[in-house]
């Protein structure tokens, strides 16, 4: 399947290694020696389901003539062409994606030969109700000018007028993400926009902190761009902390996950968050995502930039003590 978004044409060494180990265990145990456990079997792409079936049901797929992805996709998947926003954010384009299942009962029947599926409704765990809030903000004049420049750069790249080593769509997209987060990431001399994502996040985080003083409730702030480097350059993490401290939050109650670089240090940090000693924890999705156990007093979660996978939104929905929670999310616009 070529020219279909979301389907990689290359293999990963760690995936090939896992596949070989699964095949070896299948030979030793007759297909009964591998157990996978996951809460998000399909978190980012529909192709992930084929990958799991290939690990656990390779002989079944081969017997049914679906050992190759194209055969499996032709049986159970459908490509959909839709109009979507262009990467530079100033126009629209048609994009084909592998985005819909069909023959779903048959697919589920085959998958259940190797899967024990438990949904949240079946488990009925005591998770809290979440309130999802999108803060929609207007871009500054500087940001609007930057977006126009992105469009011009993209046209030049598509026309082949620019050497790819000088400018390319990946660089333009990354600059667009920086612009959406804070215009100072592209030019430190630009003013700090009053209604920027960072300032709105600071305002929301301070309000939640102030309201939770009695119970010492805690918050997480996710930001994948502009992580602290310690070299004196502008970054969002230090900017957020400095503004929160200026509003009256003790500096020791705000922590960056990046400053805790060993498992022992992380365990101590997480214990402080659970105890309410650290009440605002900032981190990126890879560092503060899976495996972070700090939910005892967690009351709010903020996304300053949009994570890549849908499963990365909603980490506050876990079984824990406090019942009311707020998650401030980013849908890709100039918002928090």
Task: Tell me what the structure shows.
It comes from Blautia obeum. By secondary structure, this protein is an alpha/beta fold. It has two domains: 13-117, no CATH class; 129-138 and 195-329, Rossmann fold. Strands 3-8-7-4-6-5 form a six-stranded parallel beta sheet, sandwiched between helices. The protein has a two-stranded antiparallel sheet with strand order 1-2. The longest helix has 18 residues, at 141-158. It has helices at residues 13-29, 47-56, 58-63, 69-76, 104-111, 120-123, 141-158, 169-181, 197-211, 236-246, 263-275, 285-288; strands at 77-85, 92-101, 129-134, 218-222, 254-256, 280-283, 298-303, 324-329. Strand 5, helix 11 (263-275) and strand 6 (280-283) form a beta-alpha-beta unit. Mean pLDDT is 84; it is low at 319-336. The protein is built from twelve helices and eight strands. It is 38% helix and 15% strand.
């Amino acid at each position: 399947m070529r020219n279909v978004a979301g389907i990689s044409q290359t293999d990963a060494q760690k995936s090939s290694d896992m596949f070989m180990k699964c095949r070896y265990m299948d030979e030793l145990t007759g297909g009964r020696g591998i157990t996978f456990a996951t809460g998000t079997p399909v978190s980012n792409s529909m192709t992930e389901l084929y990958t799991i079936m290939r690990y656990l049901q390779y002989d079944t797929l081969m017997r049914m003539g679906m050992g190759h992805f194209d055969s499996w996709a032709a049986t159970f998947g459908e490509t959909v062409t839709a109009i979507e926003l262009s990467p530079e954010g100033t126009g629209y384009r048609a994009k084909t994606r592998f985005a819909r299942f069909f023959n779903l009962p048959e697919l589920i029947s085959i998958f259940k030969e190797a899967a024990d599926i438990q949904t949240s409704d079946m488990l009925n765990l005591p998770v809290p109700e979440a309130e999802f809030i999108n803060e929609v903000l207007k871009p500054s004049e500087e940001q609007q000018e930057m977006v126009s420049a992105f469009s011009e750069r993209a046209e030049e790249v598509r026309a082949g007028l620019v050497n790819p080593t000088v400018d390319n769509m990946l660089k333009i997209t990354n600059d667009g993400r920086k612009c959406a987060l804070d215009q100072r990431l592209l030019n430190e001399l630009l003013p700090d926009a009053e209604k920027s994502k960072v300032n709105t996040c600071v305002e929301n985080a301070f309000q939640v902190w102030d309201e939770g003083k009695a119970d010492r409730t805690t918050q997480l702030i996710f930001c994948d761009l502009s992580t602290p480097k310690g070299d004196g350059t502008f970054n969002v993490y230090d900017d957020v902390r400095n503004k929160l401290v200026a509003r009256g939050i003790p500096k020791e109650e705000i922590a960056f996950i990046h400053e805790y670089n060993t498992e022992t240090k992380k365990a101590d940090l997480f214990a402080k968050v659970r105890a309410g000693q650290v009440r605002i924890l900032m981190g990126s999705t890879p560092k503060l995502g899976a495996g972070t156990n700090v939910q005892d007093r967690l009351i709010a979660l903020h996304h300053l930039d949009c994570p890549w996978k849908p499963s990365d939104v909603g980490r506050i929905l876990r079984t824990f003590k406090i019942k009311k929670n707020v998650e401030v999310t980013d849908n890709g616009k100039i918002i928090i």
